[in-house]
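Protocol step 4 of 6: record predicted structures for both targets in the notebook before any analysis. Target 1:
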Amino acid sequence: MLRLVAYAAALVLSASGASLAVAVPGDIPANAHAREFGSGWECNFGYRRDRNICVRVEVPPHAYLSASGRDWECDRGYRRENNACAPIDLPANAHLTDLPYGKGWECDPGFREQANRCEEIQVPEHAYPVYASYGPGWACERGYRAEGNRCVEIEVPENAYLTAYGDRWECNRGFRKTGETCVALNVPPNAHIDSSGHDWECDRGYREREGTCMAVQVPANAYATYETTGPGWRCKRGYRAQGDECVEVHVPANAYLTARGDSWQCERGFAREGDSCVRLEVPLNAHIDFSGNAWECDPGFRPLEGACIQRSSDALNALESAPHAAEGLGGLDTPAS
């Protein structure tokens, strides 16, 4: 009776257009339930599907059901072997890794694995044990460096400091390393300490020459740069370099200065001819191209004798076979095809 009521309710919901999952109770096996979304069924927690039935998940000793409820996992300290959980043989001075690969354990800091045991590492004075399966297994304290099997103190000279790792030293800003000492930089006039802090470079408008900084001769309508190559100056916008001076860029009508400011370019719809810009003569069935300073034929047309001719026209065939017949087009200049 209860199954009939449930089946009738499912039919009513289906007829009303509700998006609830529908499954005929008679089609759902024992220890299963209808899926929350979509159609069909799935096994209850603690059961797994075997063809068209749900069978209980057999959990061996020292194991527990997984989050899905369809399998099992071993307790901590045990590892899956076939259908059972075998204990991990944990030696002294070791700890579990909780990883599915390897032996399941690793030695504590200060110990190193040897023949499935953890043997103590001899840590020298001013050192501490580290997690590592390679190397000596220890690292020197800050202010010490390794020499063989011991840690020796680092002698930090005057005007120097220990680096972040603490295993070496560097000179303070304004000093340069010379042997095992830090020597003050001799910064000449018109210079400054560079970004490294251990050398110097000339100021803007000056160039290094034999340990000094000499002024760069900047011409009129120019400005000094920080560049270490080239003349050391650059012309202002609207001027261009010519030898050791900057000459004005003469922009003709219907033109504009380029982004660099040292040359000009014709406006859209004009083409360069010598030192001027002339308006483009765009033939029929053509348009100005992407550059803005030339034209190209429309789709379905091709250039010939300064005009755009339809590809399938008889005139095109005649012109291609007898070029002298193009005289009837007015002797237009032939553009590059």
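Target 2:
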Amino acid sequence: MHISGKIGIPVGIVMLIIGGFIAASSISSFEEAEKIENFMSEPSTEIILEYIDEDDSGSAGWYLMIQAEYSVDNNGDDTVDACDGLNITITDSLGFDVNSTSGNIYCTLDDNKEMAGLDKSHVDINDGWMIVGIVCDTLDDAEMNGYWETSRNENGEEGEVWVQTGENDRCEIGENYTISSNQEIKLFDRDKQAGLEVRGFIELCGGICCAICSLIFLIGAVISGFVMKPAPQMMMPIGTGGGVVGGVAPTVPVDPNATSSSVPGTAVFGAGPSVNVDAAEPEPSQGGDAITVADSLKEKFLAGSADKITEAKDPSKE
């Protein structure tokens, strides 16, 4: 197998597993978003909430709920009977009424049907609590400030267009809002739930994209690993000093009677030829003859020196 396959296949498998884990993690986010009790407040006649927008991208707000049934209008006044005698106020920290700017109460039959759709999609329409208002929906997540209209563009293509009919809720970050009622109310944190839904969607898309890219990479690694041929092995010529080429030692004929120093490629630096024991035996000493010759030369030298001294002292020879 080519080196690209040996490296690419394990990497592709690891990336594929990571993508699967990321996609699987989205399931827990969606499951957590379905736990309604995690976003619901306790029943009370007065609730104080602080508006926080950590990412500064807007909020889906809170659903204001009372114990009642949807679409009940026994007196025919186009208003649900649950709103008869209902008194809900929304004030800021200074006590100013912000019921028309930071939140809205919806009691008409048409609006009540819209609230029923939100309850069915995001809360629990069978729990005996009815959505009667929305607070701090700055994103208009409930789509209560407009409607979708089918129209055609300049090219004649048909599409849906959002028509704005009202202003979105305006809430200040860090402001405390007090919601008071003459009967028990609950607040459902729609913004927190929507955040989990968005996170789950991102995890799902990211995991699927990572898995697809990993699968493509893995297929390419498998193909390249089995189709591409390994690079040829480099062959080096044998030098005069011998060596190993391609993992095979060269064959050199050796004379069984030769010493190690006579075989090419086997010489060792600092080592001499084998020692011949017979040649190392000392020869008989010739010391006597050497001394006789030295004495004879000494006597001749001294005799010649004496004759020269005598001639130098004889005045008759001057």
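Step 5 preliminary note on target 2. The beta strands are 44-50, 62-67, 88-91, 103-105, 129-135, 146-152, 158-164, 176-189. Residues 38-200 form one domain.
Proceed to step 6 after PI sign-off.
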